[in-house]
């Protein structure tokens, strides 16, 4: 696998009905002092495009190209865009309901995707999905209420909580885009960089604990997000006519961004870190504390873990690099990958270290074929030692050995918890992150009445923060009436399940995910009961409508990845704490055949597992060859003498009558009998028996 590190000679200026756009020549992405290559000045030619603010000169970063390198179409679109402006700025002014191909690529950087309803036949009905950017999943009260209003006024009446702690707002038509975008911006929100070839939303544990380590992790996530936010103003030019609405940045963020002591920056560019070309593909970062893997740490391009001393004081960070979920069906050279250890840095160096990693990917990630442009492919090609060595050149120091950490745990933060500052927070499960109907109305009423801030979790759930103890009872009652139940009243299978939106709006979806998940979970619950698994037992189930992996199915114990109409590729072997990568078990499993595959797997897990062995660990220990043999030879559950369980049934006739009654409740005869006996014993103990 080769890497694309330089990019050819200058392109001609775009011509559009006599209007010209100012473009700089682009000779590569290596910055000054980079790997011994010298800076070569380029000539810029400037002409004007009608717009309220003057154009920024496009400055590329220079180097002598050794060879002409092929580039993808998106790379050329970015180069000609005058820092993500043209031709989107013109397309938004037309009466057409959609925008052209170049603009569909550029609007991603602004936090939006063009979509159409694939359920509808005939002419396409275009709309736009907007995604917010909320580091740590933090949502101020004002922003939540604004998003709720926008969903009703300009969307489809629902809000979608994503797997990266953000909102998605579907169904916004082109003529309303500026109104919606400016409303979000003026309500302390942003969609800048929620999509596109740059750093996406930075994850961190959503729990609002008043603990040094959690607060330090969240502040670090905020700082990294600020460091890697685009600086050239294209977003504000487009949506609020150039008005800058930004909070003051910490001085250490500004210092780290401007530092060019190791050749990381484009000195004369409005985008000192990104340049004209930004990154080869999307870039994902997560920050957390030891043991807390609520962020799916190892699925990110960069994972950052706070390391504290014995007194709980943050000292530095372990860094992990090279994770990523996306792949392409039937292209074996694409694959999901877990991040691996890069090293340790002291806390004062974290922004410089992260910047060095980003620049290494910017300079060396492939730009010829977007299937291979994520940083995971660069690291897989180079190996971690070479990657570390190059990052250290941009960092200016050697990484220290990673510090030892305890085992990871998945933490959902559902239910009621003490914040540690006298207040409470309440984590609420939301199936597939879809907030609508009575649930949406009630959440708004509570958040507005009690003036609550909100946190979104990486598991598509929502946390209400800063609740006084006196409010707990009325809030619990109101939530329950809207179907937002405490976790003990929610099916355990649902609590850890995730699904992407897929059909009908996602253009990449091959089959259902969100709309299909409720039926899949009900059928798996029925299989559990049939094979005798207890209600409180569960497996991590995730589904996506295509192989891009937005709901991270490759980390699930049981992953469904759409590979055809009403058909899924099944992945097995992830673990509950999200530290193992699943593997492909079967292809082209039709939705109506799920029981034929899952029943033998769960039946044997029930009977052959070791003590407290999860389903994922069980499938890895037994091996896929054995699992495949069980599926192929499965003839259903065979009734044997032990099925009658003579401790409960003295004869076959009694068993068969009980079995007949049990079927009406989707239970086994044994389960129903135990329930009857337990209820009878409880009644006797309470003095209610006759």
Automatic annotation (TrEMBL):
Q: Top-level EC class, please?
A: oxidoreductase
Gene3D superfamilies found in the cross-reference section: Sulfite Reductase Hemoprotein, domain 1, Sulfite Reductase Hemoprotein,Domain 2
**Cofactor(s) for this UniProt protein:** [4Fe-4S] cluster; siroheme
An example molecular function term from Gene Ontology annotations: sulfite reductase (ferredoxin) activity
Using the record's annotation, list all stretches that form the Nitrite/sulphite reductase 4Fe-4S domain: 225-399, 496-633
- Which SUPFAM superfamilies does the record cross-reference, listed alphabetically? Nitrite and sulphite reductase 4Fe-4S domain-like (SSF56014), Nitrite/Sulfite reductase N-terminal domain-like (SSF55124)
Residue spans crossing the bilayer: none
What this protein catalyses is: hydrogen sulfide + 6 oxidized [2Fe-2S]-[ferredoxin] + 3 H2O = sulfite + 6 reduced [2Fe-2S]-[ferredoxin] + 7 H(+)
- What EC number(s) has UniProt assigned to this enzyme? 1.8.7.1
Q: Nitrite/Sulfite reductase ferredoxin-like domain: from which residue to which, for each copy?
A: 127-182, 417-480
- Keywords tagged on the record: 4Fe-4S, Chloroplast, DNA-binding, Heme, Iron, Iron-sulfur, Metal-binding, Oxidoreductase, Plastid, Thioether bond, Transit peptide
Q: Which GO terms describe its cellular component?
A: chloroplast nucleoid; sulfite reductase complex (NADPH)
Gene Ontology biological-process entries? sulfate assimilation; sulfide oxidation
Q: Which InterPro entries would you find in this protein's record?
A: NiRdtase/SiRdtase_haem-b_fer (IPR005117), Nit/Sulf_reduc_fer-like_dom_sf (IPR036136), NO2/SO3_Rdtase_4Fe4S_dom (IPR006067), NO2/SO3_Rdtase_4Fe4S_prot (IPR045169), NO2/SO3_Rdtase_4Fe4S_sf (IPR045854), NO2/SO3_Rdtase_FeS/sirohaem_BS (IPR006066), SiR_ferredoxin-dep (IPR011787)
Where is it located? Plastid, Chloroplast stroma, Chloroplast nucleoid
The protein's job, in short, is: DNA-binding protein that binds to both double-stranded and single-stranded DNA without significant sequence specificity to reversibly repress the transcriptional activity of chloroplast nucleoids by promoting DNA compaction and possibly regulate DNA replication. Essential protein with sulfite reductase activity required in assimilatory sulfate reduction pathway during both primary and secondary metabolism and thus involved in development and growth.
Relate the assembly described in the record: Monomer. Interacts with ferredoxin.
Family classification = Belongs to the nitrite and sulfite reductase 4Fe-4S domain family.
Query: In its UniProt entry, what is this protein called?
Result: Sulfite reductase [ferredoxin], chloroplastic
What is the species listed in this Swiss-Prot or TrEMBL entry? Salix viminalis
Lineage per the UniProt record: Eukaryota, Viridiplantae, Streptophyta, Embryophyta, Tracheophyta
